[in-house]
Specification:
single chain, elongated, about 10% strand
Amino acid sequence: MMAWALEHGADPSRTIAEERSRNTEENLAYSARLFPDPTGKTAIVSTRYHVLRALLISKRLHMDAVGYGSAATWYFSLNAMLREFIAFVVMTRKRQVVVLCVLLTPLWLTALAGMAQWIMPAS
């Protein structure tokens, strides 16, 4: 991305590349260390389908960030949106389990009531 930015007019003296990360969380953490003011406002530029998860990760890292989504080709976006959905569910799995348990509580209570009637029939 640095090469692309420089080709499109970015100021080389204000451009730094982060090259150690293997995933979005590492990229944000390592990039924050490169900033002159790590507590300052950060702009996250990514594809439209990825920017939400990048912003959620930045929030977890206590970064003050704003996101900008860019376009991608439709045939790549279909696969990537599915990947992002799965990654979001995995990232928020504890919250997902709690919500699922709350939503299924009426079903469990109904099943327990039915089992109680089956075990102890009314006389």
